[in-house]
Design goal:
Number of strands: 16
Helix content: 40-55%
Number of helices: 15
Low-confidence stretches: none
CATH class of the largest domain: Alpha Beta
CATH architecture of the largest domain: 2-Layer Sandwich
CATH superfamily of the largest domain: PAS domain
Largest sheet: 5 strands, antiparallel
Number of domains: 5
Distance between the termini: 102 Å
Oligomer: single chain
Radius of gyration: 59 Å
Structural class: alpha+beta
Strand content: 15-25%
Amino acid sequence: MRLKLTNRFAIYIGGILLAGILSLIAYDIYSSSVLLRDIGRNEAGEFLNTVSDELFTAMLSGKGRAGNRAVIDRLKKRPGVDDLRIIHGPSLDKQYGIEEGEIPVDAMDRKALEGTPAFGLEYRDGHKAARLVMSITMKEDCTGCHISHPGQVIGALSASISLGKFEGLIAGHTRKFIYWGGGILALTSIAAFVLTRKRLLEPLDKLKEAALSIAAGDLGFRVRLKTGDEIEELGMAFDEMAESLSEATERLKYLNERHSRLVQSAADAIVLKDIGTKMIVEANPAAAVLTGYPVEELLDLPSERLYQPGRQEEYRAVFKRWVHDGKGYLHGGAIIKKDGFEVPIEIAASVLTLDGRPMMQEIWRDLTERQGFEDTIRRQVAELEGTVKERTLELNNSLKELGEAYGKLKESEQKLIESAKLVSLGEMGAGIAHELNSPIAGILSITEALIKRTAEDHPNRHLLMKVREAAVRSKYIIMDMLTYARPAKGAFAPMYLNETVKATLALFASEINVGAITIVADYDPALPEVFGNQGQMMQVILNIIKNARDAAGPGGTIFISTRSVSDGYGEFSAVEVRDTGPGIRADARDRIFDPFFTTKEKGGGLNIGLGLSIARSIVKEHGGRIESFNHEAGGAVFRIHIPAYKKGLTVLS
């Protein structure tokens, strides 16, 4: 049930009055409780101070425990005293013994014996009583009789004081407070209700009357309130709103007439459909001309009767999408005229709401003439595009053939030049190496003999050692030149790369200088057999390990591992050598396997830049491949792939 504003205000004010009275009662109860507690604490405190003074006087007079009991029994009989006890602490019990009536009986007694006074209210025979337990500390005057030291808690006093007379006084005060407070609140509420009705409810009734009149069409109704406050300002704003509404209505009539003239004179067909029934509810004269139906026949005509039978589902799907999205899109289609002829149209739709009902406004544009022009243009464009594509394809094919021919010519020319250079260099190097090999061998033999005949401390012995070192270096350079110029054609046989790596590390340990670096080897026990030359593969691995040794330096580490690898080219046995050096420089990655290319300083050691080139040649002769890259943790990685051996197959380079 809906309540009127007058009844609501009565309920609100009554609620405020009730809440105020309840708040006063709650506050008075709380304040009375606090007041009663404070009175009880003061009364009990003053009484225990009196008891303490008399007990101290009795003790000074030497009356002992009997004197204390007499004081307690006498003061307990005072009016308003419900209970009075003396409680002995552990030191007194130890000195004088424990008595039943002087031991602590509850938590308040024990708290006071710990040195903290305890207070609380309790009920006794229908009234409240204030109970206070106060600590008794040792004084200087009592040290002659007691074993405790000054300041120590030796006992406590517990007193319960009746608060009955105070409860009566406070209850009377509470009643007066409630009577006066409730009366004042009631009078205030009545005055507020009367004032509210006069200053608020009656003006609101006037505003309601004005709103109903305007809703009924009386736009000339005005409230003209004179209250001198915000209600009057609201009435003025209401009158201004009514004036603006009247002007807007006149403006809307003008716009409606103008819009109607625009729709009626439009060249395109405009129809309005009910989204729920899909019936045409409005149409302009252009729609009648386009469809051949008079406007009267178009109204309440199902729109689907105008569409092609074979495209009904398409139109339904488009219509649903327009309704779902809340906006329209351009859509091409066709309608069937009354005489049965098809007319191609373009539909522009939009969703709107009229009189609370969702409507679909569609604008149909006749595309008969435009489609004729478009068909002609499309046909001519298609013919032109076909001609251009045909000529472009012929030109591209010619250019592609010309580019491929030119590229092959340049590639052949470059390979021919490089081959000629390398052949000439190889023949010249082989001749020089052959001519130098015999003298170097003689120099090395004579130097070895002289070193054996020279004492260790001879001043010229170090010169002979340098001569031998230079001769050995020359010997290895000549061997590399001969290997590069005239590769050895050793016999191939089944072999295991695990054994090849182990043999290389064992036979060339001194040359690799194993003591200066750390070698970590990880062999795959299931590594497949390969078909190759053991000596040539040892040379490949030795060259790579020596490079890794030089890159890692003294104290570095070389990681050697073997793995079985399968990819799109088949199954391979792989050997990987990784060092902890600086890695391969970016400018050297594409040239690292070129003959005579080196990243080391020329003129020292045994390096002339042929080691990796020879290694790649040997690996290619074994039908494999060698690759190099930098490891993500640092250092260079060289990986060799040799095809796994299958009986009956011969590996060709």
